[in-house]
Design brief:
heterodimer; A: Glutaredoxin; two-stranded antiparallel ribbon; elongated; B: mainly alpha; Helicase, Ruva Protein, domain 3; 2 domains; 5 helices
């Protein structure tokens, strides 16, 4: 009985510390979750004269993917994004974050372009508005412009099935 | 030889000088002071144990640029912190503001301190009680 309190305190600390230990501090909850997604209006990567932005996917379930050629995780997920784009499950909109236009164009030419468009966010303003701090980041935006989910790091089929598909099915009015 | 030493020292310290944002951003000393204060209070999300003042990650540079822009537009410090928290969450600030979500951060140290004090007082009381009990036992 004498040791009951220290043991309880010890176990509580174990719980607290293991929570801290197994939680990745780099994975921050986006303040936009469940909130209105940020908007953007930026020149297109492929057509520099055309302004693209969040208005282009208003009313649609959309995926907003932040990518760059300097980002290893983006290279890793590119194959999956191509597959996803081909499946026609959801339109993908890119924000090409802090990149160089020639290199980004070359990347799309070589690896394929899964995006409806890529906004060329040269100075990172759109990235800041979306609270981006590490590419790749992928946002699922509902038809009424609410951020349903954010994924940090490369996407793959398993993550897609687990985290995105149920939300898309729940968000899409069943007909 | 002396020139060699001076050059070596210059090269050695050049990287230090380059690593941090030492450029004077504003001519107005008051604005400059506010700017320097704010960039020390904001965490670099890319390199989480550095402030955006200490970091040369491009994101830190972008955030410094946004803060300079907002300061020159006459925004208040609170508006600038709001801008950052709205995008990156309370975690972006080294001193998160008191709110429902961060309440536990602010209250926990006080609660833990009080709990520790309570335990300490109890132990001391018990210790002080022991000799008195043994005295009483000796008297019997």
């Amino acid at each position: 009985m004498r040791f009951a309190i220290p043991i309880v305190v010890f176990l509580l600390l174990v719980v607290v510390f293991s929570f801290g230990l197994f939680n990745d501090p780099r994975e921050l909850p986006s303040p936009f979750l469940g909130e209105q997604a940020p908007t953007f209006e930026v020149a297109s990567l492929t057509e520099p004269d055309r302004i693209v932005g969040s208005a282009d996917y208003a009313g649609k379930m959309a995926l907003v993917n932040v990518w760059a050629t300097w980002c290893g995780g983006c290279r890793q997920e590119h194959g999956f994004l191509m597959q996803l784009a081909r499946s026609g499950a959801i339109p993908i909109y890119g924000i090409n974050w802090r990149d160089s236009r020639p290199e980004a164009l070359q990347w799309l030419q070589k690896l394929g372009d899964p995006y409806e468009f890529s906004a060329y966010d040269e100075d990172g303003r759109a990235g800041i508005d979306w609270g981006v701090y590490g590419a790749p980041e992928t946002f699922l935006v509902s038809p009424d412009g609410i951020v349903l989910h954010k994924h940090l790091g490369p996407l793959d089929a398993a993550i897609w099935q687990e985290d995105f598909v149920p939300l898309i099915e729940a968000g899409e009015p069943s007909s | 030889m002396r020139r060699f030493i001076v050059c070596t020292l210059l090269v050695a310290f050049a990287s230090v000088a380059l690593a941090i944002d030492t450029d004077k951003a504003f001519d107005d000393p008051e604005l400059q002071a506010r700017y320097e204060h704010i960039i020390e209070e904001v965490r670099c999300l890319k390199c989480q144990n550095q402030s955006i003042k200490d970091s040369n990650a491009f994101l830190a540079g972008d955030l410094r640029r946004e803060i300079r822009r907002m300061l020159s537009e006459g925004k208040t410090d609170a508006e600038i912190y709001d801008f950052l928290v709205a995008r990156y969450g309370e975690f972006a600030l080294y001193r998160p503001r008191m709110s429902g979500k961060t309440l536990v951060l602010w209250v926990a140290p006080i609660v833990l301190l009080l709990a520790g004090g309570f335990v300490l007082v109890n132990i001391l009381r018990r210790r002080m009680a022991i000799p008195m009990e043994s005295d009483a036992a000796a008297e019997e």
